[in-house]
Amino acid sequence: MCANSNGFLSFSTEDDSSSQSKVSLELNPVGSLQELCIARRCPIPNYTFPVEKLKKYKAEFRVVCSISIYKCSGIGISKQEAKNQAAYLMYKQIEKLTSEDFKQIWKNEYEYKDEIYNDPSLIQNHELLHGIKFSKLALSHESVTHLKSFFDSGAPKTTYLQKIKKNSTASDTLNTILKIEDIILKCLTVSFNSGKVEVMMQVNTIPVIVISGSGKSVPDAQESAARVILSYFKSKLNIQ
């Protein structure tokens, strides 16, 4: 079953995509959903496992797949089966959304975070607190120093800078900055095609940053995506 914040939605199970995409969806619904989110520039799906009492005569698991206001539930005799079902249903829902629907998704993302930010009780009790950065993009002096050092953009030659590893990779620099700022990074490997690897990175700033990177290996693809994110930080902070 699939629902948004206003209630349950019904939709057809007809698949209008190519037969190859249909086979991929049937075999790997979780991976197919991730690829669809990349293509549509949609937030990465979040999977939760509600704690429920199992039926005495049959063990069942339930998984809820969430993307903004949209939620799909999957049920199975294993967690993976339930997750696959939830991902499949979400895929069918997301592929039908229009450009206006996606605008509403991002609008709800902003309003949702603003609501939490302005309500201390929600901040205290919200289970996703540690995955959300509530302020606009504004890095600390320490993070900016790391960023400037990476790009060699006129960072002051201080004793502190001498402790920063020279020739740090983009991945190392990004991880250091996100650790300082307490920002969550999600990185998923989404495809291996003809010796090429593609990964998707999501940084939970406001706005949420979703970047894909590719390379000959997973580290190469991660490095590519990390460099793009650092370049975005540099641009937003007007670092020359």
Written account of the structure:
The protein is an alpha+beta fold. It has 2 domains: 17-109, Double Stranded RNA Binding Domain, CATH 3.30.160.20; 135-154 and 163-237, 2-Layer Sandwich (Double Stranded RNA Binding Domain), CATH 3.30.160. The protein is built from 9 helices and 8 strands. The protein has helices at residues 19-27, 29-40, 79-94, 99-118, 120-125, 141-151, 159-162, 170-181, 218-236; strands spanning 2-4, 7-9, 46-48, 61-67, 70-76, 185-193, 196-203, 209-215. A 5-stranded antiparallel sheet has the order 2-1-5-4-3. A hairpin with a 2-residue loop joins strand 6 (185-193) and strand 7. The longest helix is centred in the middle third of the chain and has 20 residues, at 99-118.
Q: Given the C-alpha coordinates, what overall shape results? A: elongated
User: Largest beta sheet: what is the strand line-up?
Assistant: 2-1-5-4-3
SS elements, strand count: 8
Biggest sheet architecture: 5 strands, antiparallel
Average pLDDT score: 72
Calculate Rg over CA atoms.
20 Å
Protein structure class = alpha+beta
- What is the helix fraction of residues, given as a range? 40-55%
CATH topology of the largest domain, anyone? Double Stranded RNA Binding Domain
At CATH level 2, the architecture of the largest domain is 2-Layer Sandwich
Order of SSEs, N→C?
Answer: EEHHEEEHHHHHHEEEH
Quick take:
By secondary structure, the protein is of the alpha+beta class. The protein has helices spanning 19-27, 29-40, 79-94, 99-118, 120-125, 141-151, 159-162, 170-181, 218-236; strands spanning 2-4, 7-9, 46-48, 61-67, 70-76, 185-193, 196-203, 209-215. 45% of the residues lie in helices and 20% in strands.
